[in-house]
Amino acid sequence: MDRVVITGLGIVSAIGVGKQEFWKNALNGTCGTSEVTSHDTSGFENHRGGEIKDLDPNPFLSQEDASRLERGSIMAIMAAKMAVEDAVLDLKKENLQRVGISMGTTLGEVQALEKADRVWLRGGQDKIRASLLQQYPSGNIPANMAKELGVSGLNIMIPNACAAGNFAIGYAFDLIRSFKADLMLAGGADPFSWIPFTGFNRVGAVSHDVVRPFDRDSTGMMVGEGAAVLVLEPLEKALERKARIYAEVMGYGISCDAIHITAPHPESRGLIQAMNFALKWSSLKPEQIDCVIAHGTGTPTNDRAEMLALTQVFGDRAKDLPVTSIKSMLGHSMGAASAIEALTNALAVYHNLIPPTINYRTPLPDFDIDVVANKCREKQITFGMNNALAFGGNNSSLILGTYTKE
Amino acid sequence: MGKKKRIVITGLGAITPVGEGKEGFWQGLESDNSAIRPITLFDTSKYHYNQAGEITDFDPKVYLGAKGLKYLNRTTKLLMSATFLCLKDAHIKNDNRDYICYAPDHLGLALGTTCGILHSISSFDRESLTEGPRFVSPMAFANTVINAPAGHLAIKEDIRGLSVTVSTGYSASLDAIGISLNYLRSKRVKCMIAGGAEELCEELFMFHIGQGAISADSFPAEGSVIFALERMEDAVKRQASIYGEIVGYGNTLSPNTEGLVRAIELALEEANLEARKIDRIILGTNLNQQQKDIEHKAIGETLGSSIPQTDLRPLLGDSYSAGGSMQIGTSLRIISRNPADTILITSLDPAGNNSALIIRSISLT
Fold first, then answer.
1. E strand or H helix at B63, and its extent?
2. What ipTM was assigned to the predicted interfaces of this complex?
3. Looking at the structure, do residues A193 and A263 belong to the same domain, yes or no?
4. pTM of the model
5. Same domain, yes or no: A59 and A125
6. C-beta of residue A245 within 8 angstroms of C-beta of residue A84
7. Does B45 touch chain A (CB under 8 A)?
8. What is the pLDDT of residues B320-357, one digit of tens each?
9. What is the mean pLDDT of chain A?
10. DSSP codes of every residue in B123-175
11. Active-site residue A332, yes or no?
12. Using CA atoms, how far apart are residues A388 and B170, in angstroms rounded to an integer?
């Protein structure tokens, strides 16, 4: 059988760098959003975001290496090195040509572009602009990770906006199952920057105080940042090297709404389809899912669309199915978000603990859903689902399960 | 995984500097008229060069109608036009844009583009700085995400199975085909619409200058070539005309000769072919001298330097992530003329991505 398991986790987030710090803070309901300091926000009505303050690449990258890389690559390399270390992998002993990288993002190395634009507007040198633009292609993120780690297998960037991490993990899962790789590092990365902060504010999607997903009084999302990388490998390999198995990748579903470039389908058609596909590919029934790590951005439109989809897919059971949104703590880390949520899913399955949705006060009327409100919850989780929606009408659903011999 | 599902190409749509539509593109490949012409899309007066493979006479209204084009960027319009032509060519849709043989859920989309929204995002950014963040258009923000062209296309053609964008620079079109093979073989969808699209803009021009890739005889370009891919049994069942079969795909990350050699070997291995079975190679469209040198060495090591080579650069220029789609479109032309030919397509990116694709007529297997 072509079973694929997750054996290593690496994360850079607004509530912690590294799996341990992240998980401790996630369970404690730590709020990672704060006043934005990297940009002048005086022209905006909202001033908060999920920035990672004082990002320190040490000890993962030398000062010199970090200085020639952009923030997306720096965070992705940090997460990848942590994931490899967490998986207790000695890459030197691996066939490096069979180690691949699959990553997602929304805006890629957008900070390089922003610098180039500022040079342009100041009438600065074309040479400087041209050299900054070399950093912009988002494919540089997985390429830089591969160079840093010394791996040379299949390498891909799937910039599928805010569902990109799940798409990248799904492809990595397929590549292992079709014997194209022995080991995959998969996830997502996105830096906080001026453009998404401006854009999301302009579309009126941003909350001014806190992110309050699935709440009657939720007013919006908050732009964040981060990176998460998961180590995926065939079960046989993991058993052979006696690796710690966080979870098994059961299957994933993807779909496209094909109706609106930014808003979800009014009847959640695509998300329902993606969740149903994930269940089908995992050979699972809805009642076997023990928790859902939701997309949960905190915008009323998203939250209603998700609640509707959950109600449709899980029926009467939806009211007893714990659903949580870690974006209540992190804000929306865009292309990294679903990778961070997949990592959270893996930890939830491994520890039988579900992190809370913080800032939760009043349920959404019309929906009877069990939101994991404000306190983490202990529950036997055999199968966990994490969902993501995105600009472009992209939907994705990933199911992870407790590893058992059967 | 059992026996590999055979994947074939059943449709081609093209908007290129040498011609539009399958016929226009193929005829353009055989004419001696280079696509190079003075740039009109932006002011080039401050640059040393002002020539490019700009599709100056491109009129999306011909393919897409006049409505709804206002908020689409040039990449999206190139992509949508090429896809419209492809779906028609493959007889997947009729003239009224209705699906003939597949349901919307059966279709997937994989687009290779890396800088397809570069001008849109840079314009948004600069406007937010000069006009103030409260005065930029919310619609313009939607076009700053890298998957915006694919997203708009999925809406236009009602593609609901899946949509992915692949941004691996010069190898993006080939990698979009690679990921399509995966989705078709794993039976996620029945038909993949796949290819590449890239628009010419001042930011991309600057990017090429930064690579040291523009000179008097090498020029940047733009365009989109899109293909319909299906499992062979489905294509045969619906009596589709088949241009060729994708028999091998390989991808590696290694910025040197070894990396491309290995990508070629992986493609040969998947195709179950020896190197001597390759009749022709269509070279990558990357203008960067360093990549050209790597390619030259890698071909020498794998296929021998006497292998017939097609270099599209003098004719079509360098359309970055769309270049691979033009190479594939060219390979189908060669196969239509010489059905006995097995064609290798290579691409390599300065970041280190190397991809190789092998295409041949189904009559050869």
1. helix B61-64
2. 0.97
3. no
4. 0.98
5. yes
6. no
7. no
8. 999 999 999 999 999 999 999 999 999 999 999 999 99
9. 97
10. HHHHHHHHT-GGGS-HHHHHTTSTTHHHHHHHHHHT--SEEEEE--GGGHHHH
11. yes
12. 29
Q: Please indicate whether, in this complex, the C-beta atoms of B351 and A137 are within 8 angstroms of each other.
A: yes
Q: Are residues A92 and A236 in the same domain?
A: yes
Residues 54-73 of A with CB under 8 A from B: none
Q: The tokens of B274 are what?
A: 């020896």
Do A162 and A193 share a structural domain? Answer: yes
**The total number of structural domains that make up chain A:** 2
Q: How confident is the model at residue A190 (pLDDT cuts 50, 70, 90)?
A: very high
What pLDDT, on the 0 to 100 scale, is given for residue B1? Answer: 40
Listed residue (A401, A405, A173, A367) closest to A289, CA to CA: A401
CATH of residue A197's domain is 3.40.47.10
CB A17 within 8 A of CB A337: no
Q: Are both A143 and A270 inside the same structural domain?
A: no
Judged by a CB distance cut-off of 8 A, whether residue B160 touches chain A is yes
Tell me, yes or no, whether A326 and A208 share the same domain.
no
B105 touches chain A (CB under 8 A): yes
Facing residues of B108 across strands? B162, B192
Q: Please report the pLDDT score of residue A238 as a whole number.
A: 98
Residue B171 contacts residue B349 (beta carbons within 8 Å): yes
Residue with tokens 């200085």: A67
Residue A406 within any structural domain of the chain? no
Q: What is the CA radius of gyration of chain B?
A: 19
Amino acid at the residue B119: H
Q: Higher confidence at residue B143 or residue B215? A: B143
**Per-residue pLDDT tens over the stretch A339-362:** 999 999 999 999 999 999 999 999
Q: Is residue A228 part of a domain?
A: yes
Provide the 10 A C-beta neighbour count for residue B237: 11
Give the integer Cα–Cα distance in Å for A271 and A309. 6
The C-alpha of A98 sits at a distance from chain B's nearest C-alpha, in angstroms, of 9
**Range A376-402 average pLDDT:** 97
Which fold is adopted by the domain B7-237?
A: Peroxisomal Thiolase; Chain A, domain 1 (3.40.47)
| Domain containing residue A117 | 4-240
Query: Is A145 found in the same domain as A122?
Result: yes
Domain B247-364 - what CATH class? alpha beta
Chain B partners within 8 Å of A260 (Cβ): 155
Residues carrying CATH 3.40.47.10, chain B: 7-237, 247-364
Average pLDDT over residues A318-332: 97
Let me know whether A263 and A116 are in one domain: no
Could you give the percent of chain B with pLDDT greater than 70? 98
